[in-house]
Sequence to fold (322 residues):
Amino acid sequence: MKGIRVHKTGGPEVLGHEEMPLPVPGPKDVLIKIEASGVNFIDIYFRTGLYWAPLPFTPGHEGAGVVEAIGSEVKGVKAGEAVAYAGAMGSYAEYAAVPEAKVVKLPPGVDCRTGAAVMLQGMTAHYLSHSAYPIKPGDTALVHAAAGGVGHLLIQMAKKRGARVIGTVSTEEKADLARGYGADEVILYIRSDFFSEVRRLTEGRGVQVVYDSVGLTTFEGSLDCLAPRGYLILFGQSSGPVPPLDPQLLSTKGSLFLTRPTLWHYVATNQELRARAGDVLDWVASGALRLRIGGTFPLSESAEAHRRLESRGTTGKLLMIP
Ligand code: NDP
Fold:
């Protein structure tokens, strides 16, 4: 089979499109013929070496396709069924062997491309809005990178839970998109100081929660946007990692809460994974959650997909098709 392999970490050029052996499923694994792989920022972190994996590795944490074969202990899925997953590395390939515990069946009305596009970012938006800080009706939430993969789903979930949503984006086109997904206000954070704008829009009160995936360039301003006892959910670092901070700062800025969560701890049990994935896939099937696929690339062009994501040139989700 063909797949992407990284032999040394670095720029997009290290994503080599190669002939590789077909993975052999273990007793608890499902062998999936991948129809689409999701492209995520986490794939960039592994490619550059910011996050560690033993070399060589096949990137990609998300995919969907048809079950080709199952291990001897697999009970929940069978050959020929359409499934999706997130959280097992190696989806940038024609086939992947994935633990059954990570795999969900796609419901009627959700095709493989949609499944691959929504699993990781959809479950992320779900845990951010429902668990890391469970949004209450009447809250105001600030969502950075609001037209991005997680961003456009998070706006919709925050609205569904009754929040007023303020989004930040870098361009007018992205601002229109964020409004289209339900953002009440949108700030172009490369043109104006988003902290002052948030204070103006909330008449000085600040917001109850900031969802910050941008990191280095937004972190300090995000703290300054919060109402007393507000929550900063720092869940990414698209602009670079945040330097260490003195916890005393959280006290002086209003007895604030700071967490740096990761999806894997919010789908740690099979029950939680199935509940979150079930909600997300049902909402997509019913049309309650709208998904934007902002670009598709052949697997052989994964380097170009990474370049686009890194350069802020994307909206919604990027997919790769083997
Ligand atoms: P996005 O589609 O959101 O793409 C990143 C966006 O970040 C860009 O489009 C851009 O939006 C914004 N951005 C701001 N500054 C920069 C910069 N210097 N370089 C690049 N982008 C920048 O990506 P994803 O939805 O895949 O992921 C968003 C973030 O969420 C990532 O940091 C990712 O690691 C994190 N994440 C974390 C998870 C967790 O559980 N902790 C799970 C899933 C994702 P604009 O042009 O509008 O500024």
In short: Residues 112-132 form the longest helix (21 residues).
